C-alpha cells in the first residue's frame, strides 16, 4: 500500500488538503458567522489575523488565517537577546559561510541527548538573507529532551520544512497538534509558534528553512491532473487550546539570532481558526512516483514533492525532492542517475535504507552530501560497474529506503560548524566515489592505415 507502516500510531485528527481553506473550532460556536472581526467575538475571544503574504497579494497566492484566541499574541514583554548561545546556530552568519566547489559528504550526525529540540538546531548550509527574504538555510537537529513545558518558539526568518530521520516529534502549535514520524515531513510557516516534545525518545533529522515565499506543489504539466504528491494527502491540524495563567518564555529566531520574551499566558490558546495559512504534514509513502516505461532515466525533478519558486519561471529557490521505492523497467538504459554537472545545488540526506546511486557505503542514514553549483557528481565506481552489467529485467529498487534532496538555484555556502566543528566531513569522499573510475574506451582499430580523424594521446 502507498502508505507508510508506522511503528508509532497516530494520536491526532487532521483536516485534509494542501492550501485548502479550512475552518475548525475546539468549542462549538467559537467561529463567528458571516464576519471575521465582530465587535464581540463568541465567548469573549479576541480576533487576530495571521498573515503569510501581503494583504494585496494575488488571490491565488494570498495566505491569511483568522485566529480566535483567549489572549492576543502581542501580550508579552519586550524581546531581548537570548543570553545562552547555541553553538552552530547563534553566531553563525550566512555572510560568513564558505563557498567551495568541492563535493562534500558528512558521516551520520550524532544525537545529543543533553539538549531539547530548539537548542539542538545547527546551521550547516545556506545562501541569501532572512532580512531581505531571499534564499534558504539548511539545519541539522538532534535532541534528547522535551522543550520546557512552558517554552514556545517561532521563526520570523522563514518556513521550516522538517524531515525527521529518527524518533518522533510531538509538535504543539497555535493551530493544533501534529505528530511527526520518520518518513513524514512537517512544514511550519513563518511566524507560527510551537513547542516540540519527544514521546518516543531522542530525535534527529534535517530542516530546510525557506526565507523567500512559501512552499507550493509543483506544476504537473503533461502528467495531467494527478500524480506526485496529491493535494488530499496533506494534513492540517484541528483547533486545540489550553488556558493557563503561568509564566511562559517565548523564543524568536530573527535573522538567525535568538531573542526571548516573557508572558503570563499560554501561546497555545487559539480556540478556533479559519483560513489557508497553517502548519501541515505529509506522509512520503503516499508519493505517486512517475517514471520512464521505455528508455532513459528521467530528470530528478520528476520526484519533486514541494517547491519554493523563484521569480524566474521553472527555477526554484528550493525544491524538496525524494527518491522512494520504485520500479525500474527501462530497456537498454543505464538506470541509476547519470553523471552530471548541475546549475542547481544539491544537498542530500538519507532517512533510512541505502540510496541506489551510492552503494559504496559512505552515504548513510543521518548523513548528508552537498554538490554545489556545477560540481560534477554521479554514481560511485561500484554502482557504475554493477549498473553497466546487470540484467535489465523489471526491478524494484529502494525497498526500505528513503533518500531526499534539498535543491536550489543558489550557490550554497557551508557554515563553520558544518565544515569544521562537527568533525563529520569525509576527507576521502572523492577518492572513494570517483577517482577509481576506469577508462572503458575502446575505439575501433584503424583500417587500411587510415585513422578516424581523432587525435591520440601521447
UniProtKB/TrEMBL annotation:
The keyword Hydrolase does not apply. GO terms for cellular component: cytoplasm. Its EC number is 1.13.11.5. The active site is at residue 297. SUPFAM superfamilies: RmlC-like cupins. Residues 286-441 form the Homogentisate 1,2-dioxygenase C-terminal domain. Its cofactor is Fe cation. Keywords: Dioxygenase, Iron, Metal-binding, Oxidoreductase, Phenylalanine catabolism, Tyrosine catabolism. One of its GO terms (biological process) is L-tyrosine catabolic process. Fe cation binds at residues 340, 377. It is an enzyme of class 1 (oxidoreductase). Pathway: Amino-acid degradation; L-phenylalanine degradation; acetoacetate and fumarate from L-phenylalanine: step 4/6. Pfam families: HgmA_C (PF04209), HgmA_N (PF20510). Residues 439-458 are annotated as: Disordered. Signal peptide: none annotated. Homogentisate binds at residues 346, 355, 377. GO terms for molecular function: homogentisate 1,2-dioxygenase activity; metal ion binding. Residues 14-284 form the Homogentisate 1,2-dioxygenase N-terminal domain. Belongs to the homogentisate dioxygenase family. This is homogentisate 1,2-dioxygenase.
Amino acid at each position: 500500500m502507498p502508505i507508510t507502516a508506522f511503528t508509532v500510531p497516530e494520536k491526532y485528527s487532521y483536516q485534509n488538503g494542501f492550501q485548502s481553506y479550512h475552518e475548525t473550532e475546539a468549542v462549538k460556536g467559537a467561529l463567528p458567522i458571516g464576519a471575521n472581526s465582530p465587535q464581540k467575538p463568541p465567548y469573549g475571544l479576541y480576533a487576530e489575523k495571521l498573515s503569510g503574504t501581503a494583504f494585496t497579494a494575488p488571490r491565488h497566492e494570498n495566505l491569511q488565517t483568522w485566529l480566535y484566541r483567549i489572549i492576543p499574541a502581542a501580550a508579552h514583554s519586550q524581546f531581548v537577546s537570548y543570553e545562552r548561545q547555541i553553538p552552530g546556530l547563534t553566531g553563525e552568519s550566512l555572510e560568513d559561510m564558505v563557498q567551495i566547489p568541492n563535493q562534500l559528504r558528512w558521516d551520520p550526525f550524532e544525537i545529543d541527548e543533553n539538549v531539547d529540540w530548539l537548542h539542538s538546531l545547527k546551521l550547516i548550509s545556506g545562501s541569501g538573507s532572512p532580512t531581505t527574504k531571499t534564499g534558504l538555510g539548511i539545519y541539522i537537529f538532534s535532541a534528547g529532551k522535551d522543550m520546557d513545558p512552558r517554552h514556545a518558539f517561532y521563526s520570523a526568518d522563514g518556513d521550516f520544512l522538517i524531515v525527521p530521520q529518527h524518533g518522533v516529534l510531538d509538535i504543539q502549535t497555535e493551530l493544533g497538534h501534529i505528530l511527526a514520524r520518520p518518513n513524514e515531513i512537517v512544514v511550519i510557516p513563518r511566524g507560527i509558534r510551537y513547542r516540540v516534545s519527544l514521546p518516543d525518545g531522542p530525535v534527529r533529522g534535517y530542516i530546510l528553512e525557506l526565507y523567500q515565499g512559501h512552499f507550493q506543489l509543483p506544476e504537473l504539466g503533461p502528467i495531467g491532473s494527478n500524480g506526485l504528491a496529491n493535494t488530499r494527502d496533506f494534513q492540517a491540524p484541528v483547533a486545540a487550546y489550553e488556558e493557563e495563567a503561568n509564566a511562559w518564555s517565548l523564543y524568536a529566531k530573527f535573522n538567525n539570532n535568538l531573542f526571548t520574551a516573557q508572558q503570563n499566558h499560554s501561546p497555545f490558546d487559539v480556540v478556533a481558526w479559519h483560513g489557508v495559512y497553517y502548519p501541515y504534514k505529509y506522509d512520503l509513502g503516499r508519493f505517486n512516483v512517475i517514471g520512464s516505461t521505455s528508455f532513459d532515466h528521467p530528470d530528478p525533478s520528476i520526484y519533486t514533492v514541494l517547491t519554493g519558486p523563484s521569480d524566474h519561471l521553472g527555477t526554484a529557490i528550493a525544491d524538496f525532492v525524494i527518491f522512494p521505492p520504485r520500479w525500474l523497467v527501462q530497456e537498454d538504459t543505464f538506470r541509476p542517475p547519470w553523471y552530471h554537472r548541475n546549475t542547481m545545488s544539491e544537498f542530500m540526506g538519507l532517512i533510512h535504507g541505502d540510496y541506489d546511486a551510492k552503494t559504496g557505503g559512505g552515504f548513510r542514514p543521518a548523513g548528508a552530501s552537498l554538490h554545489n553549483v556545477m560540481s560534477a557528481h554521479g554514481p560511485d565506481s561500484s554502482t557504475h560497474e554493477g549498473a553497466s552489467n546487470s540484467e535489465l529485467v523489471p526491478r524494484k529498487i529502494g525497498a526500505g529506503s528513503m533518500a531526499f534532496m534539498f535543491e536550489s538555484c543558489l550557490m550554497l555556502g557551508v557554515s563553520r560548524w558544518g565544515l569544521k566543528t562537527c568533525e563529520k566531513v569525509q576527507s576521502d569522499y572523492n577518492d572513494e566515489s570517483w577517482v577509481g573510475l576506469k577508462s572503458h574506451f575502446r575505439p575501433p582499430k584503424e583500417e587500411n592505415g587510415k585513422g578516424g580523424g581523432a587525435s591520440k594521446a601521447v
